[in-house]
Amino acid sequence: MPNSIRISPPNSLLFVSDRAGGTVPDIVRGKWIWSTSSCISFGCLMEQDGPTDVTMGLAHDVDPGVLPAFVGTLSTPNHTVVVSTAEGKTVLEAQVSGPNTFVRIWVNRPQEPDKVIIGLG
What we know:
By secondary structure, the protein is mostly beta strands. It has one helix at residues 59-62, and strands at 3-7, 13-18, 33-35, 39-43, 52-58, 70-75, 80-85, 90-95, 100-107, 115-120.
């Protein structure tokens, strides 16, 4: 079952990783989604401009029917995917079945999205 949150995260960044954390990717100017094998980070609406709606769930439950902005595999040795803030606060959490999880991310616009969907599996 998908979980959602409406949030204005510090630094307008959120991170997707195993609950034990991961290696944070370097931020490259001009992009809004960055990744390593153990962590995906993405920019969202500037926190001063308002909240971002973030939904996470199984891909077949949350797929909006358009091409994702990100497709990759995330190392999940503890079988738990979390979305967290730059301060390390967990805001969403989902159990996954394996040590690696296929992840897709959809955004409603390429820069400063205010709607982000994270599909697992």
